[in-house]
Amino acid sequence: MEKTKIRKVEEIADLTNAIDIFTDTTRRLEKAYSELQDKVDQLNSQLDQKNQELSQQVFELNSLRRHFDNVLESMRTGIVAINLDGEITLFNKGVERITGLRRDQVFGKKYEEIFPAENAERRDALATLESGCAFNDIEDFIHHKNMSDIPVRRTTSIILDEDDQIVGAMDLMDDITELKALQQDIERKKTLAALGEMSRQVAHEIRNPLGGIAGFSALLEREFEKQDPRKKYVRKIIEGIGVLDQLVSDLLLYTRPLTPQLRPLTLAKITGELLAFARIKYDQDNKINIRRNYADESMIVLLDASLYQELILHLFHNATRILPAGGEFHVNIRPDRMKRNAVCEFVDNGPGIEPEVKQKLFLPFFSTNARGIGLGLSIVQRIVDLHHGTIKFDDSVPKGTKITITFPLKS
After folding, report:
1. Does position 28 have pLDDT exceeding 70, yes or no?
2. Range of the domain at 82
3. Is the domain of 213 the same as that of 140?
4. Above 60 in pLDDT, residue 397?
5. Do 285 and 324 form a contact (C-beta atoms < 8 A)?
6. Distance from the Cα of residue 112 to its chain's centroid
7. Domain membership flag for residue 215
8. Most-buried pick from 63, 114, 149, 405 (CB within 10 A)?
9. Tens of pLDDT along 204-260?
């Protein structure tokens, strides 16, 4: 009996001890779980913070990418990038303007399909990719889809990744059309300056003896009777002197420094008066039909009357030399209120201009007429420039030509 009680007491003691151990373990587990939960909460908090930082970095990266894309798109410089296979991966708006092509038309296409080599020696992005040699400030021409070739200055370079491995090449193109025009204008002004100095000397040397010849020719003409055939020859001499004098005058007008004396004039009125004067000077037989169409006869423009007279005389004289008897010379005057300009159109129904001649029309000393020296249209252009106007040639009219001149309307 005693032994049984002792065993029960021992069993109770063991059970109590086991319960204490279990309780202690449970407390430790609860504490560990609580610490783990705190750790998880801390990690979650850190993860949320990291996610927020990552989201901010992604946002900033996207903003930076959008800013970079906007910079690329707003640049006037054309930028083309290609990968190692020579496929186009970047084509900004600058190149779209130069080529007339949209980026969706060229993405993924071979570079040489869009920019074919004009000669055996390529100096472009493809050549840079193949040789590793960059090209700087190379002047070239890029074909535009709907226009003539565009003069460009191009620079190429290799594209490297973060490990300095070659991943492609880049081609930067600047449209230098305006620069070329400016260079030509500077060269033209240098030529004009030299011609001006020469012309003043030539005019002095020619006009002195020319005046003497003209005076003696006039006296000689009076010596002959009206029916004397020699009188006709003297008249030819006098006419030749007039041609030479006009040539010297044109040369001086084109080359000497001019400051227009501008004053407000009614464009339709002065144009009509000068056309009548031009008729007397160059078309006394009335072989040319002058057609006037004035949409607004009250337009006022600032003009130098003497220079505008030279403009009308040269244009009408050109028409009389190319038009047959019965030909028509139309003068249309209309306002362009949107641009605050007065527009003058001089249209003839002559034979038109050959394509190879179009680009040379306003060049000095270029003429399609064997008797001309090629200053007429050059003088016209200079007079228009002095009046801050514009001049444009168009041969799209049926069997004829049209010269459109604009002058600013008086404010």
Report:
1. yes
2. 75-175
3. no
4. no
5. no
6. 25
7. yes
8. 405
9. 777 778 778 878 788 877 877 878 888 888 888 888 887 787 777 777 777 777 889
- CATH code, domain carrying 267: 3.30.565.10
Spatial separation of the C-alpha atoms in residues 389 and 378, rounded to whole Å: 14
pLDDT band at 372 (very low <50, low <70, confident <90, very high): low
Per-residue CA distances from 193 to 1, 249, 374 (Å): 143, 16, 18
Q: How far is CA 248 from CA 259, 277, 341, in A?
A: 19, 21, 33
Entry field: residues in the chain: 411
* 49 located within any domain: no
361/404 same-domain check: yes
Lookup: tokens for 241: 């002197």
Q: Do 193 and 328 have their domain in common?
A: no
What DSSP state is assigned to residue 226? T
Q: Tell me: pLDDT of 405 over 90.
A: yes
What is the Cα–Cα distance from 223 to 219, expressed in whole angstroms?
7
Query: Any idea which residue has 């030279």 for tokens?
Result: 310
Structure tokens at 192: 């004009």
Q: Is the torsion defined by CA of 70, 71, 75, 78 positive or negative?
A: negative
- DSSP letter for each residue of 53-64: HHHHHHHHHHHH
178 pLDDT tier (thresholds 50, 70, 90): confident
Whether this model's pTM surpasses 0.70: no
What is the residue type of 247? L
In a domain, 21, yes or no: no
User: Is the pLDDT higher at 258 or at 348?
Assistant: 348
282 shares its domain with 214 = no
The residue out of 255, 289, 309 marking a domain boundary is: 255
The pLDDT tens digits for 141-155 are: 888 888 778 888 989
Report the Cα 401 to chain-centroid distance in Å. Answer: 24
DSSP string, 74-109: H-SSEEEEEETTSBEEEE-HHHHHHH---HHHHTTS
Condensed to tens digits (0 to 9), the pLDDT of residues 42-51 reads 888 888 888 8
Q: How many other CB atoms are there within 10 angstroms of residue 246's CB atom? A: 13
Q: How many domains are there within the chain?
A: 3
Integer Cα distance of 122 and 345 in angstroms: 46
Among candidate residues 261, 257, 254, 250, the one with its CA nearest the CA of residue 304: 261
Domain boundary among 141, 175, 209: 175
Percent with pLDDT over 70 in the chain: 87
